[in-house]
């Protein structure tokens, strides 16, 4: 996963699919930052297309659908 990748929300591994549909953003987003140090080490920030912002998300909760060049 890299900055600029287009992602979609998939929730936590093993999560109930109904919960992902109810609680997750129903749109795509773009990875704007990858945290490499500190308290949010190995987490990502995502700007969602609906205008919301996901801060410090676990990479396992999003799926890359279009890789950036």
Describe this entry's structure for a reader.
By secondary structure, the chain is mostly beta strands. It has one helix at residues 17-23; strands at 6-9, 28-35, 43-48, 53-57, 62-66. A five-stranded antiparallel beta sheet has the order 4-3-2-1-5, with no helix packed on it.
Q: Tell me the β content.
A: 35-45%
Count every beta strand, where a strand is a DSSP E run of 2 or more residues: 5
What structural class should be given to the helix and strand makeup? mainly beta
Gyration radius (Cα, Å) is 12 Å
Determine the mean pLDDT. 83
What oligomeric state do these chains adopt? single chain
- The rounded distance between the terminal residues' Cα atoms is 11 Å
Biggest beta sheet attributes: 5 strands, antiparallel
- The DSSP helix count reads 1
| N to C succession of SSEs | EHEEEE
Helix content: 10-25%
Shape: globular
| Spatial order of the strands forming the largest sheet | 4-3-2-1-5
Tally the structural domains.
Answer: 1
- Uncertain regions: pLDDT < 50 for 5+ in a row? none
């Amino acid at each position: 996963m890299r900055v600029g990748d287009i992602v979609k929300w998939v929730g936590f591994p093993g999560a109930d699919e109904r919960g992902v549909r109810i609680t997750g953003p129903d749109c795509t987003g773009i990875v704007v930052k990858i945290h490499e140090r500190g308290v949010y080490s190995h987490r990502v920030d995502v700007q969602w297309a609906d205008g919301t912002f996901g801060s410090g998300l676990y990479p396992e909760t999003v799926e890359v659908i279009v890789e950036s060049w």
